[in-house]
Structures
1.
Amino acid sequence: MAQPNNTAGVDNTFRRKFDREEYLQRAREREEKELEGRKSKSKGPPVQRKPLKHRDYEVDLDSRLGKTQVVTPIAPLSQQAGYFCSVCECVVKDSANYLDHINGKKHQRALGMSMRVERASLEQVQQRFENLKKRKETGTFTEQDLDERILKQQQEEEERKRQRRERKKEKKKEKAVEEEIEVDPDVAAMMGFGGFGSSKK
């Protein structure tokens, strides 16, 4: 025997009904507010950023290498542990992350540069080749310079090692002097520390 079909008389009024026009109007109002906010933030025409360029300074990663530093929580950012970026006013904890930061988008934008590289023209490339050729001919760009620089670095490293050894020796001497305790001869004799010399008098 077949069951009667009761779906025709089911009341579905408890379901929520959405008014499409109302939600479209809300979306339009939200978009207008965002546009107004963007216009008020920009305060003028969009900024044209300069293309990327080479650094004209040496990145200092090892000046504080091997040095001890007292870190306090109330110290200014520039004196805290790590690498301080004065452009973005932040501290990065290690050298790899510091390099990532100074090569990154946020830092370059703070410097007024976009992440695009300027396309070199044919004349610029030819000029660069000419400059390199002149440097090679005049001897300012030779293997000898490279050898001299390597030798100079090795000498500086040896000098630093020598200074470290001297400082260690001085510290050992100071420590030895501090450890020498002045002992009263009567107390030393009582304790059996008479000396290690000969017993003959």
Note: Residues 94 and 109 are 22 Å apart (CA to CA).
2.
Amino acid sequence: MDKLRDKINHFTFHSGRNGSQGFNRVLIQLFGLLGHGKSSFINSCLYVWEDGGYHNWAQSAVTDEGCTMNRLTYPLTSNITLVDNRGYAKLGSYETGEIFAQLGNLLPLGNAVEWSKGFGLIERIVQAETKIKPSDFIVPVFVYSVKTGLHPPEDEEIKHLLLTAAKLTGIYPIVVLTYKTSGSLTKTMGAFRNIGAEKIFAFENYTQEDCIKTRGRHNEVLHFLSEVIEEVLFRIDHSRDPKQEMKERKQFVLNYVHDQEKKLQQDHLDRQRMLEKAVLMARFKRQQEMLDKQKEKEKKEMEHELQRKQEELERKKLAYRAIQEAELRAQTENNEKGKWWNRVFR
């Protein structure tokens, strides 16, 4: 542990063969869902690093709802700073755009995070240009709770999130799994490997109620921080331009927000068309039902009229038959009378 501490504590950007290249601070950018333990993980890192008494530096909540509303910074050394970004509730387009603006370090540290709608986020990014530092080297760290588990279709959404974060920062996010004893750690780690995660660390965070120091937890935190340093050293061995990278991140996020806004507008138009189609279909259905009822009514009326005429015809037939029978009887009677008279007069 002493070697790990020494490595972390003495890290500088001048350690690279190309020198600092304009970088002077590593920002370990934590991001993820609400209540998955980002603030608690920061408390654990500071507790291990300070090696003193436990404090709730990051004001982690005891609930799973999350409480971080600002982009808060927690210096670990003069060259390494932890950043607690606001967690998101779901991967909606507005929240996702805000996540990438935070990860790209395009919004001022220490400020409140708002889920801007429309092109409000673009305006905030433009206004923040003079307040952000291109000299910060970004290392994205995705925090996820094991007790939540990772299942379809959320795994595809998170895969897209991590891939987009990698395109934005140039580094595939390191995955930190929290609450490792509160679910299936093996399955969760496997699920993250299946969506492309390479560096995965599992932790049981220190808390106010559970802050007894253990060698295992301390080693886990120090190994995580050491891996962050290794990642940075690997990256700065290549030629870098912090100002150009900041411009590229800004353009990436602006394009992303613009595309998402267009997609939202198109989705709104599609929903509007579907609603209009549903209204027309409902109207057509009502008209068809009314027409069917009218046809059924007319059919019944025709059947009733036909039945009435048939009954009238039957009555006329009966009456005609009765008249014929009466005439036949009269004729028969006349014939009998004629025969009688003939016999009499003969």
Note: The first strand starts at residue 25 and ends at 32.
3.
Amino acid sequence: MSFDDSRSQQLFAAISEAHVALRPQVAVTALTHSAALSAMTGCEVYLKCEHLQHTGSFKFRGASNKIRLLPAEQRERGVITASSGNHGQALALAGRMLGVPVTVYTAATASPVKLDAIRAQGAEVVTLATDPLSVELEAARQAKLQGKPFVSPYNDAQVIAGQGTIGMELHEQAEHLDAVFVAVGGGGMISGIGTVLKRLSPATQIIGCWPAVAPTLQKSLEAGAIIDMQEGDTLSDGTAGGVEPDSITFPLCQQLLDRTVLVSEVQIREAMRDVAATERWIIEGAAGVAVAAMKKLAPAYQGKRVAVVICGRNITLEKFLGALA
């Protein structure tokens, strides 16, 4: 798939349409220059404040776009999804705003604060004692049995189009960016951002960032096919888990990513601490992954303008303080 073929054009058109249609329900988040992180790294660092998006993460963009585009009869039946927390919370709010019942399947290891937030938005939560990828597959199976749409956190073009509105905002907010650092789980956010920037700012490098202990999609890209692998425990629970075997994000990431980088749990903790100390923000582990990756690759971008997507803030105070200890 080249960037000028029909699939790429269709996705870019869908992102452009969503960029207008989702307002004002989806907020335009700030792109903030960080003087402290710039001095620390030698780069000109800009932070895309998705932790200030509704529900505390970028996921509200894709969820809102998907719910918006559902036919009336599907809205009435309700939707099913699988989520470690942020996507479920976002879909729950988007569903509540438009009167669409939402059921969220999740793994027993999901963050309790995120599950409580999902329930607070009126969604039903079904917890399964299995791994995140198995939860996704079971949720999709249940959706088919019940005749309801399954809303994948990433394997859905309409969800990706919603996430891609971040790329539209980045292009509008920055005259030029040499690189954008994005934490990656299933690849929906980086696929959307990359689709936009490769068309509107082709010189901008798209950098995919993973925890070293949980890099399923990154290892799949290296292998040339989606693989299943055992992941370790990570602070970046928002990016943890496997990838659906037919995920449309895989070929997108193959085409769009200029570079991938893995960071350790120690580096993630240090990045979260740096942001707390310099910006006075609480950020979750997935956001720490992107900051850590930027710090790791900073020698290659001295004096250059880089953006880091601060993708979410949904972390318990206890877990956050533990990360800083």
Note: The longest strand covers residues 205-211.
